[in-house]
From TrEMBL:
Keywords: Oxidoreductase, Peroxidase
Protein name: Glutathione peroxidase
One GO molecular-function entry: peroxidase activity
SUPFAM superfamilies: Thioredoxin-like
Any one of the GO BP annotations: cellular response to oxidative stress
Residues at the active site: 36
CDD domains: GSH_Peroxidase
Matches recorded under InterPro entries: Glutathione_peroxidase, GPX_AS, Thioredoxin-like_sf
Family the entry assigns: Belongs to the glutathione peroxidase family.
High-level lineage: Bacteria, Bacillati, Bacillota, Erysipelotrichia, Erysipelotrichales
Organism field: Sharpea azabuensis
Length: 181
């Protein structure tokens, strides 16, 4: 059994969601924010979910307020924002940390499986690099989540097969999901 299936994350209603519930499915784990420049990716995520959910895709939305305080609301407020503005239907978990001493153990594992590989090219990638250099001169050499909307792709066998930084083209994310379906 893959180690991925041994983890669980807290749900917004105070329960635990075990990754074992996703056995045999393709899973996209995303740390999200409601007030970020990348927040419109919710629209793309919902489109991917609607296209591939019946074929075995699950998206696990884990709101996080660690990046410039861009997810300030309660779990209920975050859920309301996402469902009203983007009509999201995929499971949304409790707001949690993805880096540091209080990070979810699932994120410790995900980062150990897929290290940071850069932001790619283009103006958003350059802006992220410049900003992060000011915050952490060594940001390129650690596996930490760099910003909101970092995505980890897990195949049907529970193997972490991809990591997409927030600057990744959402079409590339969809293509990677489709290849596993």
């Amino acid at each position: 059994m893959s180690q991925f299936y041994t983890y669980s994350v807290p749900t917004a209603d105070g329960k635990e969601k075990t990754m074992e519930d996703f056995k045999g499915k393709v899973v996209l784990v995303v740390n999200t924010a409601t007030g970020c420049g990348f927040t419109p990716q919710y629209k793309d995520l919902e489109s991917i979910y609607e296209t591939y959910h019946d074929q075995g895709l699950e998206i696990l939305d884990i709101p996080c307020n660690q990046f410039a305080g861009q997810t300030p609301g309660t779990d209920e407020e975050i859920h309301e924002f996402c469902t009203l503005k983007y009509n999201t239907q995929f499971p949304q978990m409790k707001k949690s940390d993805v880096n540091g001493e209080n990070e979810l153990s699932l994120y410790t594992y995900l980062k150990s499986q897929q290290a940071f590989q850069g932001f790619g090219k283009g103006p958003k990638a350059l802006a992220m690099s410049v900003m992060l250099k000011k915050l952490d001169k060594d940001y390129k050499n650690n596996p930490n989540i760099k910003w909101n909307f970092t995505k980890f792709l897990v195949n049907r066998d529970g193997e972490v097969v991809g990591r997409f930084e927030p600057t990744a083209n959402m079409k590339s994310v969809e293509e990677a999901v489709a290849a596993l379906i």
